[in-house]
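**Reference record**
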Amino acid sequence: MRKIEKFLRSLTFNIRRDKELDLNRRGFVASALSLMGIFFLSSTPLVVLSKKIEKESNEFETLIAAQGDLAVGDSVAFSYPKEHDPALLIRISETEYRAYNIKCTHLMCPVYWEKEDWKLVCPCHHGFFDVEDGSVLAGPPQRALPTINLAFKDNGIYAVSITQAQH
């Protein structure tokens, strides 16, 4: 009976002061800084990898339409940079075109071009975007639409990169 009681006490009261780690304030700060350094160094490969992926995605080029296919005020849908990223090319004057990713920045509903109002409209929550720069005119979206940069060559309009909204 004595052995069982001793065993149960060793399980219950297993704190031994002589085996505790002696950690004072300086030791705690040094440990915390070391741990932060390890986390910083271990995240470096991920940062390099994300930069590489971003650079690769910007190098992709897609033919959208031939120059002159669209009348002023018309639009054409396309996908950029991947197949499941809907985008819209709009001709706003004889010489100017704009292209945007048309996932609303609020809840990713598709944005439509309303030629009569000269605005991009999100029908889900009545968000409105300016066709000139993709900025928010009204509604719940807080950020502008991502802009797709265009290049004109060989009588074609190409999507060459995408720029996330800065405003």
